[in-house]
Specification:
This protein has about 350 residues and is an alpha+beta fold. Helices cover about 35% and strands about 25% of the residues. It has 2 domains: about 140 residues, Aminopeptidase; about 160 residues, 3-Layer(aba) Sandwich (Aminopeptidase), CATH 3.40.630. Strands 1, 2, 3, 4, 5, 6, 7 and 15 form an 8-stranded mixed sheet that branches. Strands 9-10-11-12-13-8-14 form a 7-stranded mixed sheet, with helices on both faces.
Length: about 350
C-alpha cells in the first residue's frame, strides 16, 4: 500500500530586496500573480528605503526551490506615530501573495520580526489576508479603489465622463494651458513644488523629495510626470505609475489657481489620453477614504468605488497605531499645518512625513 502523499514543507527566508538575484526571482514570481501591484515590487521597497530611510525587507516562502509566497515589508520609524512593519510602505497596495501554499507561516514570522524590531504594529494593504489569527483586525469599508477601462479615442474618452464633470474638463480644455510630460530634473522640481503646495493646503506634511526621485529612478519607463502650465507657471502636476496596462496617478495636486483654471480636471483627462497613447488599457484612480472629498471627486468622473480590504496587527498590550490624517485626533494639527507658510511647511514636512509610512 502506498503511503499518503505529503506536500513538501515551505521554507521561509528573510531577504534584502536590494539583492539583484533575489529581486530577479521575485519579479518572475510577481509576473504570474494576478494580485501583484507596483507596491509588491522590490523596486518600490528599495525606493522607499532610499527616499525615506525606512528599511526594505521581505519574507519569502519557497517550496522545492521555487517561490510560492512573498510578503514585502518596510520597517517604518516615527517619533510621533511609533514603529511598524508596513506592506508596503507609502503605498496603497501590498500585502501577502501566495501561489498554492498556506501563507500563515509568513504571517507568524512577520509577527515575530515585528516584536524583534520593536514594531508593535503590522499593516497589510491588500493581498491574502489573515484568517482568524489572534491580534489581527480586517478592515473592509475604510477605503475604496477606483478603476475603469480607457476609451478607444480622445472623443470617446471625453464622452465617457459624466455630463457635469465633462463640462469642467471642457472648461479646462478651453483655457490657454499646456502640457509637459517627462522625468527630467525640471519635471521633478516642478512636480515637487506643486505637490508640496497642494498637500500643505490640505494640512498634510509633504513627503521627502528624495522619495519621488527614488521611485522615478527605479521604475524607469514605468513612471513619469505630467504637468499643466499656465504660461510658464506650473499649476497642476502628477507623478504616475504604469503597471500591467494600467496607469495609476499616484502623487498629484494643484496650486490655489488650479481650481479656477480647472487645471486638475485637465490634468487627469490629459493623463488618460497620454496613457492610452503609450499602450495602457485602464485607468486606476487609486484609493480614497470612503465618503471623503476625493471619493466623491472620483465618482463624479464615472468611476465606481470598489471596497478594499486591509489588515492590521497590534502586539498584545499595545495601543492601536493611528496615523490617519482624517482621524479626529489629528484635526487640530491639520488646521495648524494649513496656516503654515509654505517654506516652513516644506522644511518641516519631510521630517514628519517620512515616518507616516
Amino acid at each position: 500500500m502506498n503511503a499518503p502523499f505529503r506536500p513538501e514543507a515551505i521554507t521561509l527566508r528573510l531577504i534584502d530586496p536590494a539583492d539583484a538575484g533575489e529581486a530577479a526571482r521575485l519579479e518572475g514570481f510577481l509576473a504570474d500573480r494576478p494580485g501583484a501591484t507596483p507596491f509588491h515590487r522590490p523596486a518600490w521597497l528599495c525606493a522607499v528605503a532610499a527616499g525615506t530611510g525606512n528599511r526594505a525587507l521581505g519574507l519569502i516562502g519557497e517550496r522545492g526551490g521555487a517561490v510560492c509566497a512573498w510578503l514585502p515589508l518596510n520597517e517604518i520609524h516615527s517619533p510621533i506615530f511609533g514603529r511598524m512593519l508596513a506592506s508596503s510602505g507609502f503605498a496603497v497596495g501590498g500585502g501577502l501573495l501566495t501561489a498554492g501554499c498556506d501563507g500563515d507561516a509568513l504571517l507568524a514570522e512577520a509577527e515575530r520580526q515585528a516584536l524583534m524590531r520593536s514594531c508593535p504594529s503590522i499593516e497589510l494593504r491588500g493581498g491574502d489576508l489573515p484568517q482568524d489569527r489572534a491580534g489581527w483586525v480586517i478592515k473592509t469599508e475604510s477605503h475604496c479603489g477606483f478603476a475603469r477601462p480607457l476609451a478607444a479615442d480622445d472623443e470617446a474618452e471625453l464622452l465617457a465622463i459624466p455630463r457635469k464633470q465633462r463640462a469642467e474638463v471642457r472648461k479646462g480644455l478651453e483655457k490657454n494651458l499646456r502640457v509637459e510630460i517627462g522625468t527630467s530634473t525640471k519635471d521633478r522640481a516642478v512636480h515637487y513644488a506643486v505637490y508640496a503646495e497642494s498637500v500643505r493646503n490640505l494640512g498634510t506634511p509633504v513627503f521627502p523629495r528624495a522619495l519621488f526621485d527614488a521611485v522615478l529612478d527605479r521604475f524607469g519607463d514605468a513612471a513619469d510626470i505630467l504637468t499643466i502650465y499656465e504660461g510658464e507657471r506650473p499649476v497642476a502636476s502628477v507623478l504616475s505609475l504604469y503597471h500591467r496596462g494600467a496607469v495609476m496617478p499616484y502623487w498629484g495636486g494643484g496650486t490655489w489657481d488650479a481650481r479656477r483654471l480647472r487645471a486638475n480636471d485637465r490634468m487627469y483627462f490629459e493623463l488618460m489620453l497620454h496613457a492610452r497613447r503609450r499602450g495602457c488599457s485602464s485607468f486606476d484612480f487609486g484609493r480614497s477614504k470612503t465618503g471623503s472629498g476625493a471619493y466623491h471627486f472620483k465618482r463624479n468622473w464615472g468611476f465606481e468605488p470598489e471596497p478594499l480590504s486591509y489588515a492590521a496587527w497590534t502586539a498584545p498590550g499595545q495601543p492601536v497605531r493611528d496615523a490617519d490624517p482624517t482621524s479626529a485626533k489629528h484635526a487640530m494639527q491639520i488646521a495648524v499645518w494649513q496656516r503654515l507658510p509654505l517654506a516652513v511647511a516644506n522644511r518641516l514636512g519631510p521630517l514628519i512625513a517620512k515616518g507616516l509610512g
